[in-house]
């Protein structure tokens, strides 16, 4: 007897030990692990092996394995049943929990189960349809993280007394129709399989909205999709749909927002607090003049990086200056403004187009009126002056 056959024989003789350790050890746990430990281990490993993050060979299979192990062990009834009946019980019990090919370890024990993912015939395993659901998520939830629970109602395959026809296919057979005469006919040939029925069941699912998750991120639940009569279940996939926020706009890990300030604040300076997504306050202050469209960059106040939550993007604040309307300055007020900012420039020669070199007095606001195509050309200030505040 070769070593491979000996290993298989040991697995059959002690099935609960082999599969039990594999289920728990796939999450790096012992069979005495608590539900909280199972959840924590799954979240850590799922983040490590998620196909969107890990492109190494085998990462996707590893992710499916730990996802399905978590789905079994996090359900109290399934875990108790699994711990009590082991591998041989799973094989005999059939049904949706461990039969029908949706069990992730079928590829390891397929020959003992009489099928599974690794079919020796090379035939493709039948599979139910995938179910994709859009999951609206707020920017606040993506910033601080959240857990969302769902009740999933779907058809589950359960054992039923008797047998049924399965794996039906057409075969050519020869029939005798007389002495020395034969006829080729097509006949349907079927196997006898254990009988089953579909029963609607509700299952509690939990989606973890991790810090920094991005829009269109796919969160899969292997085996929770549509069932197949003679194959494995499809997958259930939640697709993160980041909702539009009234204050912040996200680009990658950076956040953008606009703040309108009065003309007085723009000229004399300001100091106030901005309420962030998690409620903490960000102080915005400036003593110098702030021009319309000026941008203030605040490092480490953006979104947490999904791959490394210790890193954060930047917060970019663009200032809009609100000019007073329907107000006319007195002669004394006008003279005071001219005294501060210099003579009027509108009486000078009007310039056309965008200059190639920086104009004198541009930074101080001492420029003549300039006419240009705003759709195709940058403004004089935009070309020669940066908008980022220093």
TrEMBL record:
CDD domains xrefs: DnaJ, DnaJ_C
Entry's Gene Ontology BP terms: protein folding
Pfam families (alphabetical): DnaJ, DnaJ_C
Alphabetized Gene3D superfamilies for the sequence: DnaJ domain (1.10.287.110), Urease metallochaperone UreE, N-terminal domain (2.60.260.20)
Superkingdom assignment: Eukaryota
UniProt region (Disordered), positions on chain: 369-390
Single Gene Ontology MF annotation: unfolded protein binding
Record bears the keyword Translocase: no
Domain J: start-end pairs: 22-86
Annotated keywords: Signal
InterPro entries reported in the protein's UniProt record: DnaJ-B11-like (IPR051736), DnaJ_C (IPR002939), DnaJ_domain (IPR001623), DnaJ_domain_CS (IPR018253), HSP40/DnaJ_pept-bd (IPR008971), J_dom_sf (IPR036869)
Segments traversing the membrane: none
Sections of the chain in a coiled coil: none
Signal sequence coordinates: 1-20
The protein's role, per its UniProt record: As a co-chaperone for HSPA5 it is required for proper folding, trafficking or degradation of proteins. Binds directly to both unfolded proteins that are substrates for ERAD and nascent unfolded peptide chains, but dissociates from the HSPA5-unfolded protein complex before folding is completed. May help recruiting HSPA5 and other chaperones to the substrate. Stimulates HSPA5 ATPase activity. It is necessary for maturation and correct trafficking of PKD1.
PANTHER family registered for this protein in UniProt: DNAJ HOMOLOG SUBFAMILY B MEMBER 11
Protein name per UniProt: DnaJ homolog subfamily B member 11
UniProt source species: Ictalurus punctatus
Gene: DJB11
């Amino acid at each position: 007897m070769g070593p491979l056959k000996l290993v298989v024989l040991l697995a059959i003789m002690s099935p609960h030990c082999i599969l039990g350790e594999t289920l728990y050890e796939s999450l790096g746990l012992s069979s005495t692990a608590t539900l909280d430990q199972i959840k924590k281990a799954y979240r850590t490993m799922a983040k490590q092996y998620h196909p969107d993050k890990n492109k190494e060979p085998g990462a996707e299979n590893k992710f499916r394995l730990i996802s399905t192990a978590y789905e079994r062990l996090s359900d109290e009834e399934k875990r108790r049943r699994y711990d009590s009946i082991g591998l041989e019980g799973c094989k005999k019990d059939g049904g949706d929990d461990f039969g029908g090919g949706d069990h992730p370890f079928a590829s390891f024990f397929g020959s003992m189960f009489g099928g599974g993912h690794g079919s020796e015939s090379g035939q493709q395993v039948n599979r139910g349809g995938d179910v994709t659901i859009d999951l609206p998520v707020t920017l606040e939830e993506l910033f601080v993280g959240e857990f969302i629970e769902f009740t999933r109602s779907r058809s589950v395959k359960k054992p039923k007394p008797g047998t049924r026809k399965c794996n039906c296919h057409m075969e050519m057979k020869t029939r005798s129709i007389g002495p020395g005469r034969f006829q080729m006919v097509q006949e349907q040939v079927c196997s006898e399989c254990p009988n089953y029925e579909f029963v609607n069941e509700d299952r509690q699912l939990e989606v973890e909205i991790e810090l920094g998750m991005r829009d269109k991120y796919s969160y899969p639940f292997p085996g929770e999709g549509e069932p197949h009569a003679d194959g494995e279940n499809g997958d259930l996939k939640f697709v993160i749909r980041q909702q539009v926020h009234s204050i912040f706009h996200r680009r990658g890990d950076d956040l953008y927002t606009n703040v309108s300030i009065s003309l007085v604040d723009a000229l004399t300076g300001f100091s106030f607090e901005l309420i962030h997504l998690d409620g903490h306050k960000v102080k915005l202050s400036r003593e110098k003049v702030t021009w319309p469209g000026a941008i203030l960059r605040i490092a480490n106040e953006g979104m947490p990086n999904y791959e490394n939550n210790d890193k954060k993007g930047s917060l970019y604040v663009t200032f809009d200056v609100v000019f007073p309307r329907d107000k006319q300055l007195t002669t004394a007020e006008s003279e005071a403004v001219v005294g501060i900012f210099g003579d009027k420039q509108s009486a000078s020669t009007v310039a056309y187009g965008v200059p190639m070199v920086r104009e004198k007095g541009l930074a101080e606001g001492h420029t003549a009126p300039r006419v240009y195509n705003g759709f195709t050309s940058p403004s004089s200030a935009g070309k020669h002056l940066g908008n980022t505040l220093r």
